[in-house]
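Researcher: Please translate sequence to C-alpha cells.
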Amino acid sequence: MNPSRFRARICSLAVTTLLASATIVCAQAPRRSQSRQPPAKTTSDQSDAAFDQAVKLGNEARQAEQLPQALDQYTKALKIRPTWTEGWWNSGAILYEEDRYAEAREAFQKLLSLDPKNAAGWAMQGLCEFETREYDQAIVSLLRGRSLGLAKYQELESVARYHAALLYIHFEQFEIAYDVLTEFLKSGNDSPKVIEAFGLALLRMPFLASEIPPDKREQVLIAGRAAFNMAARRPDEARAAFDQLLSRYPNAPNVHYAFGVFLLNQDADTALKEFKRELDISPQHQPSMVQMAFEYLKRDDYNTALPLAEKAVQLAPKMFPARNVLGRVLLELGQIDRAIKELEEGARLAPTSPEMHYALGRAYRRAGREQDAKRETALFQKLQDEYNARRNAELTGRDADSNQPKEKP
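Model: Translation complete:
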C-alpha cells in the first residue's frame, strides 16, 4: 500500500457520514388495495424496485470488500437514477481504490455537478487529478475542498493537505508549502512523508515525493527534521539538525540560505554571512538577495539594500516580496514614483497580501494621494483582520484537537 496515496478503504466507511446530503432510498411496501386483486405494477414501481435491489446488493458487496461486484451494482443503480449522489461517491471511491484514477475522477465530477459544495468530493477529485498528473487542476480541486471544510473527515483532510503541499513544492511555491505543512504540527504528525515534504520545501527542491533522487534522500530528511523543529519552535533540536546538514552538505544549494533564515531572529549578523555564503555557491540566488535587502532595510542601510533588491526583481519579476522590499527601499530614498510603481506591481501579484497594501498605502500618502492611501490602508486592515481570524480559528482548532489521535498521510 503506497503511503503517499489515500488508501484508507474509503469505500468501507459509512457513506452517510461522508455525504451528509445523500439519502439512501429504501423500498417501501405498496399500500394494500381495497380490491382483492393486487394493483398492477407501474414502470416507476419496477424502476424503484430495481434501483433498491441494486443498492442493496452493492452495499452488501462493498461491506464484504467485493469491490468489482459492488461497482457493478452501483453502476446499475446509477443508470436508473443518475442523480444519486451517494452512488457517485461509492463508485468513485471504489475506482480510486482500484487505481482507476481517470474513471474515479469522472465519478467525482458527476457528484460535484449535483452537489458542488461537497468538500470531500472536491478533495477526492483533486487526489485523482494528482494521480493522473493533472497538477494544475489538482491544486485547484484540493484547495476548493480545503476551503469548504474537511474537519469532519480527518484522514481525508490530512491526505489532501499533504498533497496540496507537494503541489506547492512542485510549482516552486516553497513558502506556501511550508505554511501548509506546519498544519501537521497540531496533531504532532512527524511521519517520514511529512518530514520529507518539509525537507523539500526547506531546500527549495521542486520534486514530488516519488521524484527525489536517491542520492538526495538523506539530505532531504535531515533538512526536513530541521524544518519541522523550526516550525515547532524547538530551536535546540532545529539547530542540531542544521549542524548535521551543514557538516554533511556544506556546498549544497539552499543549505546556507535555510540556515540563514533560521538564524535571522536570533543572530542577524551571522544570518547575513550565511546568505552571502549562499550567494558564493549560487550567485543568482534570488531569495538570499531578498532576505539581505530586508535586513539592510531594517538597519536603515538603504544604499546597500537597493542593488540587492533591484537584482532580486530582475531575476524573479513575479515574486512579490522582491517588489515589496524594492518599493520600500526606494520610498526611503525619496524615489516616490518608482516606489509606487514597484509596490503597485507587488499588490497586483499578491492582492491578498496585507503587507503589500500597507506599504503601498504609505507610498501613496508620501505622494499626497490621500484617497488612494485611505483605500489601501482600509484594504490592509480588512486583510489583516481576516488573517487574524483564521489564525485564531487555527489555534482554537489545535486546542480542540489536542486529544485526537495522530493522523498519517
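Researcher: Any highlights?
Model: Confidence is low (pLDDT under 50) at residues 1-35, 400-408.
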